What we know:
Chain A has 228 residues and is an all-alpha fold. Helices cover 75% and strands 0% of the residues of chain A. Chain A has helices at residues 4-37, 43-55, 58-69, 74-81, 91-117, 120-127, 132-143, 145-160, 164-169, 180-189, 193-216.
Amino acid sequence: MLTPADLDALLLTFKVASLATLFMLLIGTPLAWWLARTNSIFKGFINAIVSLTLVLPPTVLGFYLLVLMGPAGVIGKLTNELGLGTLPFTFPGLVIASVLYSMPFVVQPLQAAFTSIGEQPLEAAATLGASPLDTFFSVVVPLTKPGFLTASILGFTHTVGEFGVVLMIGGNIPDKTRVVSVQIYNHVEALEYSEAHWLAGCLLAFSFAVLFILYTVLKTQPNVQQLK
Amino acid sequence: MPPITARFQLAYNKFSLDVDLQLPSTGITILFGSSGSGKTTLLRCIAGLEQAPIGFLEINGSVWQDSEHKVFLPTYQRNLGYVFQEANLFPHLSVEDNLQFGLKRLDKRPNKADLKNLLELLGIEHLLKRKPDRLSGGEKQRVAIARALALNPDILLMDEPLAALDFKRKQEILPFLTRLHQQLEIPVLYVTHSHQEVAQLTDTLVLLEEGKVLASGSLSETLSRLDLPFAQDKEASTVWQATLIAHEADYYLTRVTITDESLSLPFIDAALGTSLRIQIYARDVSIALEKPKATSILNILPAIINDFTHDSYGQCIVQLRVGTQSLLAHITRKSALLLGLKRDMPVYVQIKGTSLLN
């Protein structure tokens, strides 16, 4: 059965993933919109930066973040100046690291969705008197709803599954940074296989359910091709 | 209303647009040209969807672009209606919500009766609750036209609105456009490369080639100009504006008058005094030096030869004057030589057939 510590870990994981997903959508949406529409020479550069965490070992990202956010790092000095203390081994630090780590899983589906709707609906909206911002909320968002759902689900699940970054930047502090993946590792280390089974099973069922929904239910959503 | 002034200069890699146009403030002006002639680009410049680096645009007394004074009104602030080649309806909205999309963003709502008339005119009242994916191509395009016109725009821009439709759908929409033509009081700029649409809809014709204006003027004048590709085309024709004056019920004929002359046409079910648009194909016109006596052809009119030219396929293209109207005739070069055609020569034209355009 799940122990109280396991439940705490689950709750914490849910909190981190929800907050991280929210921030990823807030930052990722304008970023993906810009990437989908710009011809700027920086497009390739920014694309590479955003996608970097897809290929980088999580420990590398975690290491750099630890250095940057630590007392001697640029960010660490800044947060100290502001009286926030340093971020490693704290809940906010974990959320920030998660946002950076899972960002491509939010930006890429959004970017693909924005690209796929093309210029036509935007031009139609402009000729009907809608400003660019108005057009974004009244035309682009409804037309790319499946993209937003995919982005949220992938961002959330990828955050739930992270381990390397958490260990580097969050450590293993109950109720603060001990998420499910770390808790499973703890159980295995302690040879508590039955506890590990319960938690691992929970994650497996959750991940499968989410992907199942993604591939079956969302397929029936109206897609952008009908525009033509 | 003051006329429309449009001057644009813009250059891409291999394409450049350089136009300076004064267009009438009512009626349909057709921008005609082959693909790549710049007609769509010109329309997009007028809509502000494209920004010409050098440009001046004044419509209905308001300046939409003046590059000299760094004035460029974004599209969404221009009071215009735009009909795209593909209807471009919002797929997530019903027909009604598509129509309301622009209306909601207007300062003053047009009255309900106007909107109802428009829906009736375009025959789409029964479609309001449907989503665009439940409409035929022709229905989509009619909704798109209604959506653009509902805004009471200062100008209506139409970019090949029939090009994406098959022949049957075209025939379904053209009558609606002709009706609009008679009822609209705003200028319409209409891009097409279809001769049929030109003959049926145009008041003013602007001919574009490689980004430049080759000719612009009234339809009948432009169609019969020997130096333009229209007159040489196999489908070359002239369009006359006629008035219905009598019915000859026994013969199933209708008589119409064009200034001084009159013509017999197959019976037209319309009231006396109706204004009609008649198309006469150049291949249906033959020339005789003396008035033919025993002939089955009913429409024989006196004419003067204005000018003629030969093409490289043994054909002579003759431009004639019938009263104040221009008329084109395609005859063989051999006939032209045998008749000894000269400029200002009085002749008779026999018109084998006419088609009614409205």
